Structures are given as C-alpha cells and as structure tokens.
Amino acid sequence: MRLIGLASTAALVAACSGGGGGGTGPEKEQAKAPVVAISPADGSGKAKPEQGITVQATLGELTTVKVQLGGKDVPGTLSADKKLWKSAGNLKPNASYAVEAVAENDGQTSTTTSSFKTLKPAASFGLEANIPWTGQTVGVGMPIVLHFDQPVKDKKAVESALTVESEKPNTGAWYWYTDKQVIFRAKKYWEAYQDIKVTGRFAGVKAAKGVYGMKDFTIKFKVGSSNISTINTRTHRMVVKVDGKKKYDVGISAGKATERKYTTTSGTHVTMEKENPAIMISPGIEKGEPGYYREVVPHAVRISYSGEYVHSAPWSVGSQGRANVSHGCVNAPPAFAQWYYNQSKWGDIVDVTGTDRELEFDNGYGYWQKPWKDWVTGSAFDQAVSTAPGQAETPGNAASTPPTPAESTTP
Predict the structure, then answer these.
(1) β-strands 96-105, 127-131: how paired?
(2) Which among 122, 343, 155 is positioned nearest to 248, based on CA atoms?
(3) Hey, which end of the chain has fewer CB within 10 Å, N or C?
(4) What angle do CA 40, 91, 157 make, to 5 degrees?
(5) What is the active site of this protein (predicted)?
(6) What distance, in Å, lies between the first and last C-alpha atoms of the chain?
(7) What is the pLDDT along the chain (411 residues), one digit of tens a residue?
(8) Alpha-carbon distance 66 to 55, whole Å?
(9) 123-225+371-386 domain in CATH 2.60.40.3710?
(10) Which listed CATH number (2.60.130.10, 2.60.40.3780, 3.40.50.1240, 3.90.1150.190) goes with 35-117?
C-alpha cells in the first residue's frame, strides 16, 4: 500500500513539473488577414444608385477607404468601430466608380478593390421650371414652386432630397400640388432683407420606376423690403406699409359685384407680375357682344390668376374712396398706382377684405389661404421642416424659366 502511494505521488510530481523533458506546449495561433466586403460587387454593371456604396470589414478594421468617380473623391462616413463605411447620398446613374479599401487585423493589412457601374435609367427627371429663379429679389410672401419634367411617384425620395435654407430661420413645408409640381410655403412671412437657397440633391434619386435624377441644382434668391398692403372693399381704402411703416392710405374702387366674376376676391393675395401696360379683355364675352371690353391699362400689378390687378384707373377717380365700380380689379389713383407699380415685386402681400367671394388657395400664389395644419399634410412626410442655415452645399444649376401666368382678363 505504501509503495503504491509513493508511486502515485511520483507520477503526480512528474506530470505537474516543468522539468527538462523538452516539451514546447501548444503552438501560438497564427494571425489572420483582414476580410473586407464591398457592395456593389466588383464588375457590377447595373448597380442601383439609391443603394449607395458600403465597405464592411468582417474581420479587422478599416484604415483607409477611397472611392472615386471621374477622378474625384466620393464622400462617405466611417463608423466609430471602423468596421463600416458608407457613401454619402445616392450615386450618379450611368457612371463608373472605383473603390479601394485598406484594412488591418492583428498586424496584418490587406487591400480590397472594386470597380462597378451604376445602371442606365430608362428616363431622367429634373426641373422644368422654377420660381423664384436665381438672382431674383422677391417679397416676404413669396412661395417656392418647382415644376418637374416627369411625374414623381416616390415623393418621399424626392422631397428628402430638397432643402431650403434662409439666413433668418423660419419653418416651412412642401406641398405636392400635382405629381409634377411641389410648392414650399413658410409658416410665417419671410423676414425682409436676406438670402435664401434652395438645393435639390437629385443625382441618383429614384422618382419613379426606371426614372432617376441625373444632376443636382441650386437656386439662390433674395428677399427684399417688406411690402404689405391691406384693402378694405367696404371702406374703399388701400393702406400700404413698407418695412412696417405706413407709406400710403388711398381711396380705391373694387369689383362692383353685380356678378360673381365682377367680385374682388377676399383673402391673402401675393403679387405675381407687373405689366405696363396690361391688355385686359372681358372674360367669356366676344367682341360685339354686350359687356365686351378691351382696355389698355397702365401700371398694373397682378394679384391672381383669375385676372385681378391693382392698377391705375383714371376713368374711375370719382368713385375711388366712395364706391366699387370695377370688373373685379382694384382701381387706384394714377399717381399712387405708378408709385405702387415701381415699389412692387413678386411676392408682396395684398390682403383684401370685405367681399363674400373668397380667394382660392391655388388662384395665383394664394397659398396663404390654406390653413397651416392643412398645408403640412401636403408633404410626403406630413411634417414641417426648419430653414435654419448650415446644411450641406450642393453644386448644380437650376432651371431659370418662370411659368407663364394665365391671360389677363378683368380691369
């Protein structure tokens, strides 16, 4: 029994000692090279622009990612853990990209490359027209109206690519009037004397099946003086304030209201254009018929599509301040009308009260007629956005052709 115990002890000592038996223990595990995956894959010929580029290190960390388009670097962001890089924004359609990613893992480095091409769209979309246009100076009530050359089905994709920045922050919302027109209106009037920039990062944006934007655009315009006029058709007075100070309080003559078409619309109008002279023709009445007229009217400022103007009316001076005798326009004294014409610009406010015919929100730029809560629901996201400055600069050119207004009708 004692011998067995001694033998067992000796065996245990031998097994646990590090003696000079020449053993080396388990071999050290070899370091593995980093593993990187790039999407779109190398050789792709129809990559989707809206999916962008991702570079992911499934083993190790990314140290350098370089993406080029036509010799220029494509921006992107690297995650905090250095495992994932994503391109910023959409890719340009029908374009060739080159990706080079360097990764490191436990002292070993590797370089992974990919070259691919984005799909060629079946059709492209972009701006057909816009107001205001670059360089224009407008009034405090001016909307931003964009007309597209293709119907937009994915309104969220297009709206998310649009930004409005103003020097003096405001809140606004986009309103989809049709599939080809979207309008931006602020919650409150723009503050006077500031720059505003509209950016559309449209390159690679999918507007509809097979339809992509090919280039970005930028529109830059200015807000000038605050010209706000109030017209009371019952007292026959028009008051004009410039930058908050009263400049004029004059007698006017509004629509005689014998028929609805001869009734001046009540509501918040926005000046649209100026004509000197304007040719005004009786609506719906042919030459030779009772009530026909064709007048050459000086110093006319349009305030609606339905043919309402503030204009000079020397023929009705005796009624101005006393009675409403016009066919729907605001007849004004010649000297004041000339001053008002020279002072006015697109986007000034003309607020009319006193009649039972309300201005439709889409009659001219009467967008202020729609309550704010209803306006916001016209957004693809059903929400307002801030115009605070500091958003990313986008290169590009904007269309500069204003839409053609409706024909003049009533004097």
Answers:
(1) unpaired
(2) 343
(3) N
(4) 115
(5) 311 (proton donor/acceptor), 329 (nucleophile)
(6) 130
(7) 333 343 333 333 333 333 444 444 444 566 799 999 999 999 999 999 999 999 999 999 999 999 999 999 999 999 999 999 999 999 999 999 999 999 999 999 999 999 999 999 999 999 999 999 999 999 999 999 999 999 999 999 999 999 999 999 999 999 999 999 999 999 999 999 999 999 999 999 999 999 999 999 999 999 999 999 999 999 999 999 999 999 999 999 999 999 999 999 999 999 999 999 999 988 888 888 888 888 899 999 999 999 999 999 999 999 999 999 999 999 999 999 999 999 999 999 999 999 999 999 999 999 999 999 999 999 999 999 999 987 534 333 333 333 333 333 334
(8) 10
(9) yes
(10) 2.60.40.3780
Both tokens assigned to 33: 């090279």
Catalytic residue positions, numbered: 311, 329
Cβ atoms of residues 306 and 363 within 8 Å? yes
Superfamily per CATH, domain 227-367: L,D-transpeptidase catalytic domain-like (2.40.440.10)
Structure tokens at 200: 């559309």
The one-letter code for the residue type at 162 is L
Report residue 255 CA to chain centroid gap: 37
